[in-house]
Specification:
38% of the residues lie in helices and 16% in strands. It contains 15 helices and twelve strands. Strands 8-7-10-9 form a four-stranded antiparallel sheet. It is globular and about 75 Å long. About 1% of the residues have low confidence. This is Type I-E CRISPR-associated protein Cse1/CasA.
Length: 489
Protein backbone atom coordinates (compact mmCIF):
# COMPACT_ATOMS: atom_id res chain seq x y z
CA UNK A 1 0.00 0.00 0.00
CA UNK A 2 1.26 3.46 -0.83
CA UNK A 3 -0.21 6.46 1.01
CA UNK A 4 -0.05 8.70 -2.03
CA UNK A 5 -1.61 6.18 -4.42
CA UNK A 6 -3.81 3.62 -2.72
CA UNK A 7 -7.17 3.76 -0.93
CA UNK A 8 -6.38 3.73 2.79
CA UNK A 9 -8.62 6.57 3.95
CA UNK A 10 -11.81 5.45 5.66
CA UNK A 11 -14.89 7.39 4.54
CA UNK A 12 -18.63 6.87 4.69
CA UNK A 13 -18.26 5.60 1.09
CA UNK A 14 -15.61 3.04 1.92
CA UNK A 15 -11.85 3.42 1.62
CA UNK A 16 -10.57 5.95 -0.87
CA UNK A 17 -7.20 7.34 -1.91
CA UNK A 18 -5.84 10.84 -1.42
CA UNK A 19 -5.93 11.28 -5.19
CA UNK A 20 -9.63 10.40 -5.25
CA UNK A 21 -10.43 12.97 -2.53
CA UNK A 22 -8.41 15.73 -4.18
CA UNK A 23 -9.48 15.15 -7.77
CA UNK A 24 -13.09 14.05 -7.53
CA UNK A 25 -16.16 16.25 -7.34
CA UNK A 26 -17.61 14.06 -4.63
CA UNK A 27 -17.48 15.31 -1.05
CA UNK A 28 -16.20 12.46 1.07
CA UNK A 29 -16.75 12.30 4.82
CA UNK A 30 -14.04 10.79 6.97
CA UNK A 31 -15.20 7.87 9.06
CA UNK A 32 -13.29 7.14 12.24
CA UNK A 33 -14.74 6.25 15.61
CA UNK A 34 -12.80 8.86 17.55
CA UNK A 35 -12.70 12.55 16.80
CA UNK A 36 -9.08 12.49 17.91
CA UNK A 37 -8.23 10.10 15.06
CA UNK A 38 -10.36 12.18 12.71
CA UNK A 39 -8.38 15.29 13.66
CA UNK A 40 -5.03 13.51 13.24
CA UNK A 41 -6.24 12.27 9.85
CA UNK A 42 -7.02 15.83 8.73
CA UNK A 43 -3.55 16.96 9.80
CA UNK A 44 -1.84 14.02 8.14
CA UNK A 45 -3.79 14.32 4.88
CA UNK A 46 -3.17 18.07 4.63
CA UNK A 47 0.54 17.40 5.15
CA UNK A 48 0.51 14.61 2.54
CA UNK A 49 -1.25 17.01 0.16
CA UNK A 50 1.57 19.47 0.80
CA UNK A 51 4.35 17.04 -0.01
CA UNK A 52 2.73 15.63 -3.12
CA UNK A 53 1.48 18.88 -4.70
CA UNK A 54 4.24 21.13 -3.31
CA UNK A 55 2.04 24.13 -4.04
CA UNK A 56 2.92 27.80 -4.14
CA UNK A 57 0.28 30.32 -3.05
CA UNK A 58 -0.71 30.91 -6.68
CA UNK A 59 -1.15 27.19 -7.27
CA UNK A 60 -3.10 26.69 -4.04
CA UNK A 61 -5.46 29.47 -5.09
CA UNK A 62 -5.91 27.81 -8.45
CA UNK A 63 -6.60 24.39 -6.87
CA UNK A 64 -9.13 25.96 -4.51
CA UNK A 65 -10.91 27.72 -7.34
CA UNK A 66 -10.73 25.07 -10.05
CA UNK A 67 -9.91 21.80 -8.32
CA UNK A 68 -6.99 19.45 -8.88
CA UNK A 69 -7.11 17.36 -12.05
CA UNK A 70 -6.05 13.71 -12.23
CA UNK A 71 -3.29 14.74 -14.64
CA UNK A 72 -1.99 17.35 -12.22
CA UNK A 73 -1.92 14.80 -9.42
CA UNK A 74 -0.21 12.17 -11.56
CA UNK A 75 2.32 14.73 -12.75
CA UNK A 76 3.05 15.70 -9.16
CA UNK A 77 3.48 12.03 -8.21
CA UNK A 78 5.93 11.52 -11.05
CA UNK A 79 8.12 14.28 -9.61
CA UNK A 80 8.64 12.75 -6.18
CA UNK A 81 10.12 9.63 -4.65
CA UNK A 82 6.97 7.77 -3.72
CA UNK A 83 8.84 4.89 -2.10
CA UNK A 84 8.95 6.84 1.17
CA UNK A 85 5.18 6.54 1.35
CA UNK A 86 5.01 2.76 1.11
CA UNK A 87 3.28 1.41 4.20
CA UNK A 88 6.36 -0.48 5.33
CA UNK A 89 8.37 2.72 5.20
CA UNK A 90 6.23 5.81 5.93
CA UNK A 91 7.20 7.38 9.28
CA UNK A 92 8.90 4.14 10.34
CA UNK A 93 12.57 4.57 11.05
CA UNK A 94 14.21 1.17 11.60
CA UNK A 95 15.41 0.35 15.12
CA UNK A 96 19.05 1.13 15.78
CA UNK A 97 21.22 -1.89 16.48
CA UNK A 98 21.19 -3.22 20.04
CA UNK A 99 18.44 -0.88 21.17
CA UNK A 100 16.07 -1.73 23.99
CA UNK A 101 12.62 -1.96 22.44
CA UNK A 102 9.53 -0.97 24.43
CA UNK A 103 6.12 -2.17 23.38
CA UNK A 104 2.53 -1.37 24.20
CA UNK A 105 -1.05 -1.96 23.05
CA UNK A 106 -2.22 0.21 20.15
CA UNK A 107 -4.85 1.50 22.58
CA UNK A 108 -2.20 3.96 23.74
CA UNK A 109 -2.19 5.60 20.33
CA UNK A 110 -5.70 6.89 20.81
CA UNK A 111 -4.79 9.18 23.64
CA UNK A 112 -8.38 9.90 24.55
CA UNK A 113 -8.31 6.44 25.98
CA UNK A 114 -6.12 6.01 28.96
CA UNK A 115 -4.57 2.73 29.82
CA UNK A 116 -1.58 3.89 31.79
CA UNK A 117 -0.96 2.98 35.39
CA UNK A 118 -0.75 6.48 36.85
CA UNK A 119 -3.17 7.20 39.67
CA UNK A 120 -5.41 9.49 37.67
CA UNK A 121 -5.34 7.52 34.44
CA UNK A 122 -9.04 7.27 33.83
CA UNK A 123 -10.99 5.48 31.17
CA UNK A 124 -12.53 8.80 30.25
CA UNK A 125 -14.15 8.13 26.96
CA UNK A 126 -14.34 4.43 26.40
CA UNK A 127 -13.09 1.09 27.65
CA UNK A 128 -9.59 0.24 26.63
CA UNK A 129 -10.75 -3.21 25.40
CA UNK A 130 -12.83 -1.35 22.84
CA UNK A 131 -9.67 -0.30 21.05
CA UNK A 132 -7.34 -3.25 20.99
CA UNK A 133 -6.91 -3.96 17.27
CA UNK A 134 -6.41 -1.94 14.14
CA UNK A 135 -6.22 -2.66 10.43
CA UNK A 136 -2.95 -2.06 8.67
CA UNK A 137 -4.24 1.13 6.98
CA UNK A 138 -5.07 2.79 10.28
CA UNK A 139 -1.64 2.18 11.79
CA UNK A 140 -0.45 5.23 9.85
CA UNK A 141 -2.81 7.68 11.47
CA UNK A 142 -2.10 6.11 14.87
CA UNK A 143 1.61 6.50 14.24
CA UNK A 144 1.14 10.09 13.08
CA UNK A 145 -0.92 10.82 16.19
CA UNK A 146 1.87 9.39 18.35
CA UNK A 147 4.42 11.69 16.79
CA UNK A 148 2.42 14.87 16.51
CA UNK A 149 -0.25 14.90 19.18
CA UNK A 150 0.35 12.53 22.06
CA UNK A 151 2.37 13.67 25.04
CA UNK A 152 5.57 11.74 25.63
CA UNK A 153 4.75 11.68 29.34
CA UNK A 154 1.95 9.24 28.56
CA UNK A 155 4.68 6.65 27.99
CA UNK A 156 6.79 7.37 31.05
CA UNK A 157 10.56 7.03 30.59
CA UNK A 158 10.18 5.49 27.11
CA UNK A 159 8.19 8.51 25.88
CA UNK A 160 9.62 11.24 23.64
CA UNK A 161 8.44 14.76 22.81
CA UNK A 162 7.92 15.43 19.13
CA UNK A 163 8.67 18.49 17.07
CA UNK A 164 5.52 20.41 18.11
CA UNK A 165 5.51 19.46 21.79
CA UNK A 166 3.14 16.91 23.22
CA UNK A 167 -0.50 17.59 23.92
CA UNK A 168 -0.66 20.87 22.03
CA UNK A 169 -3.77 22.39 20.56
CA UNK A 170 -4.42 22.04 16.85
CA UNK A 171 -6.20 24.69 14.84
CA UNK A 172 -7.21 24.06 11.26
CA UNK A 173 -9.21 25.89 8.65
CA UNK A 174 -12.34 23.89 7.88
CA UNK A 175 -13.61 24.28 4.33
CA UNK A 176 -17.01 23.42 2.91
CA UNK A 177 -15.79 20.01 1.72
CA UNK A 178 -13.05 17.60 2.76
CA UNK A 179 -11.08 18.48 -0.40
CA UNK A 180 -11.28 22.17 0.42
CA UNK A 181 -10.21 21.53 4.01
CA UNK A 182 -7.13 19.64 2.86
CA UNK A 183 -6.19 22.38 0.40
CA UNK A 184 -6.80 25.16 2.91
CA UNK A 185 -4.39 23.46 5.31
CA UNK A 186 -1.80 22.53 2.72
CA UNK A 187 1.34 24.62 3.11
CA UNK A 188 2.44 26.90 0.30
CA UNK A 189 6.22 26.66 0.17
CA UNK A 190 6.76 30.29 -0.89
CA UNK A 191 4.65 31.69 1.94
CA UNK A 192 6.14 29.25 4.45
CA UNK A 193 9.65 30.36 3.62
CA UNK A 194 8.61 33.96 3.99
CA UNK A 195 7.39 33.26 7.52
CA UNK A 196 10.25 31.18 8.83
CA UNK A 197 14.01 31.35 8.84
CA UNK A 198 15.38 28.06 7.58
CA UNK A 199 19.03 27.66 6.65
CA UNK A 200 19.75 27.33 2.95
CA UNK A 201 21.22 23.97 3.78
CA UNK A 202 18.18 22.79 5.77
CA UNK A 203 17.75 19.05 5.34
CA UNK A 204 14.68 18.05 3.34
CA UNK A 205 14.98 14.25 3.44
CA UNK A 206 12.41 12.48 5.56
CA UNK A 207 13.57 11.27 8.95
CA UNK A 208 12.86 7.64 8.08
CA UNK A 209 15.35 8.10 5.25
CA UNK A 210 17.87 10.02 7.31
CA UNK A 211 17.20 10.14 11.07
CA UNK A 212 18.35 13.30 12.88
CA UNK A 213 21.60 13.08 14.79
CA UNK A 214 23.15 14.92 17.70
CA UNK A 215 21.78 15.94 21.06
CA UNK A 216 19.86 18.98 19.85
CA UNK A 217 17.68 19.11 16.74
CA UNK A 218 18.07 22.67 15.43
CA UNK A 219 14.82 24.00 13.98
CA UNK A 220 16.46 26.01 11.20
CA UNK A 221 18.04 22.84 9.80
CA UNK A 222 14.72 21.04 9.40
CA UNK A 223 13.12 21.61 5.99
CA UNK A 224 9.37 21.88 5.53
CA UNK A 225 8.72 18.32 4.34
CA UNK A 226 11.04 16.81 6.91
CA UNK A 227 9.37 18.77 9.71
CA UNK A 228 5.79 18.01 8.66
CA UNK A 229 6.46 14.35 9.40
CA UNK A 230 9.22 14.76 11.97
CA UNK A 231 9.78 11.69 14.08
CA UNK A 232 10.43 11.21 17.76
CA UNK A 233 10.55 7.40 17.76
CA UNK A 234 11.67 4.44 15.75
CA UNK A 235 8.50 2.35 15.52
CA UNK A 236 7.22 -0.94 14.29
CA UNK A 237 3.72 -2.37 14.12
CA UNK A 238 3.39 -6.14 14.39
CA UNK A 239 0.87 -7.65 12.00
CA UNK A 240 -1.01 -10.79 12.95
CA UNK A 241 -2.84 -13.02 10.49
CA UNK A 242 -6.22 -12.89 12.12
CA UNK A 243 -9.51 -11.73 10.64
CA UNK A 244 -11.53 -9.15 12.51
CA UNK A 245 -12.84 -5.60 12.58
CA UNK A 246 -10.65 -2.55 12.90
CA UNK A 247 -11.47 -0.63 16.09
CA UNK A 248 -10.34 2.64 14.53
CA UNK A 249 -12.27 2.72 11.23
CA UNK A 250 -14.72 -0.18 11.60
CA UNK A 251 -13.63 -1.96 8.42
CA UNK A 252 -13.17 -5.70 8.19
CA UNK A 253 -9.58 -6.81 7.89
CA UNK A 254 -7.66 -10.06 7.36
CA UNK A 255 -4.68 -8.89 9.37
CA UNK A 256 -4.79 -7.00 12.63
CA UNK A 257 -2.27 -5.05 14.68
CA UNK A 258 -2.52 -5.12 18.45
CA UNK A 259 0.93 -4.09 19.57
CA UNK A 260 3.38 -1.41 18.53
CA UNK A 261 7.06 -1.23 19.38
CA UNK A 262 9.10 1.88 19.93
CA UNK A 263 12.55 3.23 20.68
CA UNK A 264 12.74 6.94 21.32
CA UNK A 265 15.06 9.32 19.51
CA UNK A 266 17.69 10.67 21.87
CA UNK A 267 17.98 14.28 20.68
CA UNK A 268 15.77 17.17 21.77
CA UNK A 269 13.56 19.46 19.68
CA UNK A 270 13.00 23.10 20.55
CA UNK A 271 9.60 22.04 21.88
CA UNK A 272 11.30 20.66 25.01
CA UNK A 273 12.96 22.49 27.86
CA UNK A 274 16.29 20.92 27.07
CA UNK A 275 15.99 21.93 23.41
CA UNK A 276 14.83 25.46 24.28
CA UNK A 277 17.62 26.02 26.80
CA UNK A 278 20.17 24.87 24.25
CA UNK A 279 18.92 27.15 21.50
CA UNK A 280 17.22 24.56 19.27
CA UNK A 281 14.53 27.11 18.38
CA UNK A 282 10.86 26.55 17.55
CA UNK A 283 10.12 24.84 14.27
CA UNK A 284 7.16 26.64 12.73
CA UNK A 285 4.61 23.86 12.94
CA UNK A 286 1.73 24.97 10.71
CA UNK A 287 -1.25 23.76 12.76
CA UNK A 288 -0.07 24.95 16.16
CA UNK A 289 -0.84 28.27 17.86
CA UNK A 290 2.09 29.29 20.02
CA UNK A 291 3.04 31.48 22.92
CA UNK A 292 6.21 33.49 22.72
CA UNK A 293 7.83 34.26 26.05
CA UNK A 294 11.15 35.72 27.07
CA UNK A 295 12.71 32.29 27.43
CA UNK A 296 11.39 30.84 24.21
CA UNK A 297 8.40 29.65 22.21
CA UNK A 298 5.83 27.21 23.54
CA UNK A 299 3.04 25.35 21.76
CA UNK A 300 -0.35 26.33 23.18
CA UNK A 301 -1.75 23.52 25.31
CA UNK A 302 -5.01 23.11 27.17
CA UNK A 303 -4.07 22.22 30.71
CA UNK A 304 -7.08 22.87 32.89
CA UNK A 305 -9.80 20.26 32.82
CA UNK A 306 -12.46 22.96 32.72
CA UNK A 307 -10.83 24.79 29.86
CA UNK A 308 -13.15 25.66 26.99
CA UNK A 309 -11.82 26.77 23.64
CA UNK A 310 -13.99 29.92 23.33
CA UNK A 311 -11.97 31.74 25.97
CA UNK A 312 -8.88 31.62 23.75
CA UNK A 313 -10.58 31.92 20.39
CA UNK A 314 -9.49 35.50 19.77
CA UNK A 315 -5.84 34.71 20.35
CA UNK A 316 -5.99 31.75 17.96
CA UNK A 317 -7.37 33.93 15.21
CA UNK A 318 -5.87 37.37 15.70
CA UNK A 319 -3.26 36.79 18.38
CA UNK A 320 -2.96 38.33 21.81
CA UNK A 321 -0.30 40.33 23.55
CA UNK A 322 0.25 40.64 27.28
CA UNK A 323 3.21 41.89 29.31
CA UNK A 324 4.70 38.47 29.63
CA UNK A 325 3.75 36.65 26.45
CA UNK A 326 2.46 36.94 22.92
CA UNK A 327 0.06 34.33 21.57
CA UNK A 328 0.37 33.87 17.81
CA UNK A 329 -2.12 32.08 15.59
CA UNK A 330 -1.06 28.94 13.75
CA UNK A 331 0.69 29.36 10.39
CA UNK A 332 -2.35 28.07 8.45
CA UNK A 333 -4.30 31.02 9.87
CA UNK A 334 -1.73 33.51 8.65
CA UNK A 335 -1.75 31.82 5.29
CA UNK A 336 -5.53 31.92 5.12
CA UNK A 337 -5.84 35.51 6.32
CA UNK A 338 -3.07 36.94 4.19
CA UNK A 339 -3.20 34.88 1.05
CA UNK A 340 -6.18 32.59 0.62
CA UNK A 341 -9.19 34.17 2.30
CA UNK A 342 -12.14 33.79 -0.01
CA UNK A 343 -15.62 32.53 0.58
CA UNK A 344 -16.64 30.83 3.74
CA UNK A 345 -14.48 28.83 6.07
CA UNK A 346 -14.71 27.62 9.60
CA UNK A 347 -12.15 27.05 12.25
CA UNK A 348 -11.59 23.72 13.90
CA UNK A 349 -9.95 23.62 17.30
CA UNK A 350 -8.98 20.25 18.68
CA UNK A 351 -6.72 18.49 21.09
CA UNK A 352 -6.40 16.85 24.43
CA UNK A 353 -6.42 18.45 27.81
CA UNK A 354 -3.49 16.91 29.52
CA UNK A 355 -2.33 16.84 33.09
CA UNK A 356 1.22 15.48 33.14
CA UNK A 357 0.91 11.89 31.97
CA UNK A 358 -2.87 11.82 31.97
CA UNK A 359 -5.54 13.01 29.61
CA UNK A 360 -8.31 14.70 31.54
CA UNK A 361 -10.44 16.03 28.74
CA UNK A 362 -10.77 16.62 25.06
CA UNK A 363 -11.55 19.53 22.79
CA UNK A 364 -13.08 19.31 19.33
CA UNK A 365 -14.95 22.50 18.48
CA UNK A 366 -15.99 23.97 15.18
CA UNK A 367 -16.53 27.72 14.82
CA UNK A 368 -17.86 29.83 12.03
CA UNK A 369 -15.46 32.42 10.75
CA UNK A 370 -16.28 35.60 8.89
CA UNK A 371 -15.79 35.39 5.15
CA UNK A 372 -13.28 38.18 5.35
CA UNK A 373 -11.21 37.50 8.39
CA UNK A 374 -9.06 40.57 8.22
CA UNK A 375 -12.05 42.88 8.01
CA UNK A 376 -14.34 41.07 10.36
CA UNK A 377 -12.24 39.56 13.07
CA UNK A 378 -13.28 42.39 15.39
CA UNK A 379 -16.71 40.79 15.35
CA UNK A 380 -15.26 37.63 16.82
CA UNK A 381 -13.09 39.35 19.38
CA UNK A 382 -16.05 41.45 20.55
CA UNK A 383 -18.19 38.37 21.14
CA UNK A 384 -15.37 36.70 23.07
CA UNK A 385 -14.79 39.87 25.10
CA UNK A 386 -18.45 39.91 26.08
CA UNK A 387 -18.13 36.31 27.24
CA UNK A 388 -15.09 37.15 29.34
CA UNK A 389 -16.82 40.25 30.76
CA UNK A 390 -19.84 38.23 31.84
CA UNK A 391 -17.58 35.61 33.33
CA UNK A 392 -15.83 38.31 35.31
CA UNK A 393 -19.12 39.77 36.53
CA UNK A 394 -20.33 36.38 37.65
CA UNK A 395 -17.09 35.88 39.52
CA UNK A 396 -17.50 39.25 41.28
CA UNK A 397 -21.08 38.52 42.21
CA UNK A 398 -20.00 35.35 44.00
CA UNK A 399 -17.18 37.09 45.85
CA UNK A 400 -19.52 38.50 48.50
CA UNK A 401 -19.78 34.95 49.85
CA UNK A 402 -16.21 35.16 51.08
CA UNK A 403 -17.23 37.87 53.55
CA UNK A 404 -19.54 35.53 55.48
CA UNK A 405 -16.74 33.99 57.50
CA UNK A 406 -17.22 30.43 56.32
CA UNK A 407 -14.35 28.12 55.48
CA UNK A 408 -12.62 29.57 52.41
CA UNK A 409 -12.32 26.18 50.70
CA UNK A 410 -16.01 25.50 51.13
CA UNK A 411 -17.06 28.83 49.66
CA UNK A 412 -14.38 28.60 46.99
CA UNK A 413 -15.72 25.20 45.98
CA UNK A 414 -19.24 26.55 45.49
CA UNK A 415 -17.94 29.38 43.38
CA UNK A 416 -15.64 27.25 41.29
CA UNK A 417 -18.32 24.76 40.42
CA UNK A 418 -20.68 27.51 39.32
CA UNK A 419 -17.97 29.23 37.26
CA UNK A 420 -17.19 25.98 35.50
CA UNK A 421 -20.82 25.53 34.63
CA UNK A 422 -20.92 29.01 33.11
CA UNK A 423 -17.72 28.52 31.09
CA UNK A 424 -18.95 25.24 29.75
CA UNK A 425 -22.45 26.47 28.81
CA UNK A 426 -21.00 29.62 27.27
CA UNK A 427 -19.12 27.40 24.81
CA UNK A 428 -22.31 26.44 22.99
CA UNK A 429 -23.84 29.89 23.23
CA UNK A 430 -20.79 31.50 21.62
CA UNK A 431 -20.51 28.91 18.86
CA UNK A 432 -24.20 29.53 18.17
CA UNK A 433 -23.84 33.32 18.06
CA UNK A 434 -20.83 33.14 15.77
CA UNK A 435 -22.90 31.28 13.19
CA UNK A 436 -24.24 34.73 12.34
CA UNK A 437 -20.84 36.33 12.09
CA UNK A 438 -21.29 37.15 8.40
CA UNK A 439 -24.92 38.20 8.56
CA UNK A 440 -24.86 40.59 11.48
CA UNK A 441 -23.00 43.77 12.26
CA UNK A 442 -20.48 43.88 15.10
CA UNK A 443 -22.79 45.92 17.35
CA UNK A 444 -25.67 43.48 16.90
CA UNK A 445 -23.48 40.45 17.51
CA UNK A 446 -22.13 42.06 20.64
CA UNK A 447 -25.64 42.81 21.85
CA UNK A 448 -26.85 39.28 21.15
CA UNK A 449 -23.87 37.83 22.95
CA UNK A 450 -24.36 40.13 25.94
CA UNK A 451 -28.05 39.22 26.23
CA UNK A 452 -27.54 35.46 25.93
CA UNK A 453 -24.48 35.28 28.15
CA UNK A 454 -25.88 37.60 30.77
CA UNK A 455 -29.01 35.50 31.11
CA UNK A 456 -26.81 32.39 31.33
CA UNK A 457 -24.78 34.02 34.09
CA UNK A 458 -27.99 34.95 35.91
CA UNK A 459 -29.34 31.41 35.56
CA UNK A 460 -26.15 29.93 37.02
CA UNK A 461 -26.24 32.47 39.83
CA UNK A 462 -29.92 31.80 40.59
CA UNK A 463 -29.36 28.07 40.82
CA UNK A 464 -26.71 28.65 43.49
CA UNK A 465 -29.02 31.06 45.30
CA UNK A 466 -31.79 28.47 45.29
CA UNK A 467 -29.49 25.80 46.61
CA UNK A 468 -28.44 27.94 49.58
CA UNK A 469 -31.72 29.67 50.29
CA UNK A 470 -31.92 28.10 53.75
CA UNK A 471 -28.42 29.09 54.69
CA UNK A 472 -29.20 32.64 55.73
CA UNK A 473 -25.68 34.15 55.83
CA UNK A 474 -24.79 32.74 52.41
CA UNK A 475 -28.12 33.65 50.94
CA UNK A 476 -27.78 37.25 52.15
CA UNK A 477 -24.31 37.51 50.71
CA UNK A 478 -25.60 36.27 47.37
CA UNK A 479 -28.41 38.81 47.38
CA UNK A 480 -25.79 41.51 47.94
CA UNK A 481 -23.67 40.21 45.10
CA UNK A 482 -26.50 39.81 42.63
CA UNK A 483 -26.59 43.46 41.55
CA UNK A 484 -23.31 43.09 39.64
CA UNK A 485 -25.09 40.92 37.11
CA UNK A 486 -27.92 43.42 36.72
CA UNK A 487 -25.73 46.48 36.29
CA UNK A 488 -25.90 47.96 32.82
CA UNK A 489 -22.77 47.41 30.72
ZN1 LIG B 1 -8.88 0.67 10.16
Amino acid sequence: MNLLKDPFISTTDGKVSLQEILTSEKDYQLQYFFDETQLAMLQMLASLTTVVLKPTIAQLKDYLANGVTTEQYQQALANIETKWFEDTSFMRAPFPAKSKIADGPITKLVSGIECGSSANALGLFSDSEDVSQSCSDCTHVLNYNLHMNIKGECFGPTGATGIRGGGSITTLIAGATLKETLLLNAIASDFYHKCTVLNDTAETRYMWDLPPTGAIYQAQNIGLERGLFALAYHVNFQMEDSAGYCHICGNKTEQVVRVFQRVKFTGAYGSTKNGRDNGAGWWLHPYTPRTEKEDGTYAVCARDQNWQSWQELTSYIVGKETDKATVKPAFVFNQFQNELAQGKANILIGGNIADQGSITGRVYDLYSMPASLSKNNRRISQVIDVGLEQKDKLSQSFNKMFGVGYDKNFVGGIKEQAMQRFTSNAQQIIQQILLDVDRKEAAQLRKDAATALNSEAKAVFKSVQRKYQHDLPLFKALVKGEYVLYKAN
